[in-house]
Amino acid sequence: MTVGRKVFVFKDESRIDPISKETREVLISIYYPSNPVEHESKYISLFEPNISLAVDMLCSMGVDKDYICKLDTKIHNDESVDITAKNCPIIFIAPAFGVVRDMYSFCVEHLVESGFAVITVGATHESIFSIFPDGRFVQQSNEISEIDSLDIHSWKQLLKLRIEDIRWVVRNVDEVLDSDKDLRAIVDVNEMGIIGHSLGGAAAYELLKRDKRIKASILLDPSFHLITASKAEGVSVPLLVARQEKCSFEELENEISPELLPLLLSGYESLFNSCNLNSSFIKLNGAHHMTFSDIPIHYNEDGIEHKHSTINKYIAAFLEEHLKKKENKFHELLKNKIKNGIDQVNSKGQVI
Question: Is the pTM here over 0.85, yes or no?
Answer without folding.
Answer: yes
